[in-house]
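so the lab meeting is tmrw and i was supposed to have these ready like two days ago... anyway. pasting both below. for each one the top line is the aa sequence and the line under it is the structure tokens. i havent really looked at them closely yet so no promises
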Amino acid sequence: MNRTHANRPIGIFDSGIGGLTVLREIARLLPREDLIYLGDTARFPYGSKSSHAIIQCALECARFLMEQQIKMLIIACNTASAHALEMLQETLPVPVVGIIQPGFKVLMETTRSQRVAILATQGTIASNVYQNLIRQHYPMACVFPIACPLFAPLAEEHLFDHPAADLIAAHYLQSLNTANIDAVLLACTHYPLLRNAIQKALPPSVKIVEPAQSCAEQVRSWLTASEMQNLQEQGRHQFLATDHTERFAALAKTFLGREIDLHRIVLQT
């Protein structure tokens, strides 16, 4: 084991604030780890961009975090995971963990009927990454993929408790009332902020699942197996954004329950 490498931070990036759900779970499970979070708010949202543009954004975020001497990279963004995970895993010299596999795992562990819905950005739905993964392992499953492009902006604008969130959720999810599903995956890390509005739009028996905890457990498993845990008393958390730092800081307090020290950075293209 290289103790110098074990003491390096874990890098996490997302298109905005949503990936803080993943950071929160990693911090809870691994309180000794140093974490660097990068929110690419200047180019939010990723979900409406072309695959080429998403890959370019992911590359630039990854390159910046690699310059911070990280020991592992977490893509806490479903859209970026869907389009850039394999490429980053093949090119970076550190382990790269996406959010797709953890989301798939927790969804299929939750469902009993194998009738499930995927709520995600247009980019994630169009990639078919969840649909293909589920059908590959569960060929009899019935999957209802629904693009919800306004959910992430509602979260970023702090409108998750606004009546508009209820109306938009009801509009997007009305077809699920007769789909006889038993589980829904929030396949965008922004969507947990709208959990109440989403739950109200679904039959009460439908379980809503999120990938953040499963992702954090995967990170812990790798660190343990590789003997790469940081053994310090308490980890330090660094928060970076590419734009809108005041709004980001306010929303981060909602996610994390505490004030953060946020710094703006410029990514090199």
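ok protien two:
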Amino acid sequence: MAQSRLNVGILGATGMVGQRFVTLLENHPWFSVTVLAASAGSAGKTYQQAVMGRWVLEAPLPAKFAHFRVQDASQVAAIAPLVDFVFCAVDMKKDEILALENAYAKAEVPVVSSNSAHRWTPDVPMIIPELNPEHALVIADQRKRLGTKLGFVTAKPNCSIQSYVPLLHPLREFGIRELSVCTYQALSGSGKTFESWPEMVDNVIPYIAGEDEKSEREPLKIWGTVNGGQIEPALGPKIGAQCIRVAASDGHLAAVSVNFDRKPTKQQILDRWRSFEGIPQARRLPSAPVPFLHVMDQEDRPQTRLDRDLGNGMAVSVGRLRSDALFDWKFIGLSHNTVRGAAGGAVLTAEYLTSESWIQKKS
């Protein structure tokens, strides 16, 4: 548990995920926001001015941040003394994000990133705290590479895999051999709304650039092992993914079919789901949903609009578990993509890392 409140900065605070960070951290018991930073174009404005006409959340802009002066996220030397760590949700090219996150880490500022740039850096952990918290051990090796005492980078996984990987994780004892997944992903996953993307009204688009590949590869890093100062991805299971953009504002839904080495019974699956909890739940971390997994018995649930906000948007829901003609079992999973899948998942990761003293108050 945090001993004293940590000062935190939000890089990319004016974007959709940055706005989520702002609302989630408004009254956080461990973290105090001391810096809101964005592009040079927003720097110098108040936060209210910087997001005027761009605020996309239903929740109002927190009054306590309205008059914060936005800083230039690229000014690492100016921001680093003001924070104990930062959340990063900048909208930049991949090589620019890599350079920026490395610069903060080398300035002894831990970075908890919602961006994808560092996900495949071998000594950067990509953590879902309930599933692979042990991957944080690789931070010690990353610090040796960077030459830092406090600074490091950790990345959050892709938002879509969090609608189904947490549901498969408790079933790994049965040997997950192969799975097919189709994700139906909300507009907010692209940082857009119906107002900014009117072409999505009454529409489905069967392509999201790079998403199929992320969904097939990232679970293997989540299920990998720390070895020799880096994370070695798991060799299996085989994953086939199709990712589709649908006309929903928030929430990613996944249709999963899976084969096992040792086929579990329906009751065994339900028992594993209902009893599963991770370290965040055991420690009652501030953002941890209890329960983590919501098992639904209704034939028509989970539904995106009805169930995405369970556990304040941090829970994963599952239903429609049934046998399949080609696979052992199939089911439907759902998670909130900008809360559990983005800002909220990053906040929970920071809470876990703080509870393990990877993130500390600067002396």
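from a quick look at the 2nd one: Residues 6-158+343-355 form a domain with the Rossmann fold fold (CATH 3.40.50.720). The CA atoms of residues 114 and 243 lie 19 Å apart. will dig more after coffe
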